Amino acid sequence: MEMASEGAKVVVGSGQDNSVAAQVCEEIRAAGGEAVPCMESVTTMEGGERIIQTAVDNFGKLDIVVTCAGILRDRMIFNMTEQEWDDVIAVHLKGTFTVVKHACILFRQQRSGRVITFSSESGLVGNSGQANYGAAKSGIAGFTKVVAKDMGRYGVTANAIAPRANTIMIGDIPDSAAEIRARSGVAAIPGEDLLTELDPSHIAPFICYLASDYAANVNGQTFLVYGDTVSLMSQPRPERSIYEPSGHWDLQTLVPLARDVLTAEVSNPAPPTLPRE
């Protein structure tokens, strides 16, 4: 909606639920914009290509691609099934690739374009019960940095957004995962006091910024976006190092330096707890 209000012609995808895309398109058209729905799956190369072709067929060209398709299949790592792993990787990580790859074919030819992907704090810092989602979102952050380097020479930028937002995906969180997080002091589903701050509409203006000419030199970055806050995330870099003059470590010399220097200030994000009775 926000991008359409800024003049973008929009292809709206919604996976298996056709009604969502149709409703959004109706709202965009009612406001005077142009939009078409697309029900193709991002989980196949053919689907990704058809999504891009839908934009070209309806609007003549493609300038911006935003990859925000997503599902959740949360479960603790010892309970997660192969299918739950595969489903999340297919939609988030592969789904980002299938769309971005075909968009970049066009962007390279026209020597312009914007790629905006969706990562997550779950992938950047971790979140209990989300091994599949965290792996996919971490992969998307790395993928986006590579796309930025691949495509920058062609006048194309690629950046990732890690949003905090209350979306329909939250309905996919199983009760078991929510209960475990609650015992750890982590809210799986936001309370009323957070709903305003986590309104997805807060994310949209920054997407528009990254898609604009104002951000022509912003490339390969990750941004945390929620409520009234936008943060540029730091790039991974060495924080502390130890060295062995001989060029080869052995355990005897490594232990004191690793313990007292390298990891001296490192804390365990999930320390052991007593068994539940």
From TrEMBL:
Gene3D superfamilies: NAD(P)-binding Rossmann-like Domain (3.40.50.720)
Protein name from the UniProt record: Short-chain type dehydrogenase/reductase Rv0148
Domain Ketoreductase intervals: 7-173
Single GO molecular function: oxidoreductase activity
Family label: Belongs to the short-chain dehydrogenases/reductases (SDR) family.
Any one GO BP annotation for this protein: lipid metabolic process
Assigned keywords, A-Z: Oxidoreductase
InterPro entries registered for this protein in UniProt: KR_dom (IPR057326), NAD(P)-bd_dom_sf (IPR036291), Peroxisomal_Beta-Oxidation (IPR051687), Sc_DH/Rdtase_CS (IPR020904), SDR_fam (IPR002347)
Keyword Transcription regulation annotated: no
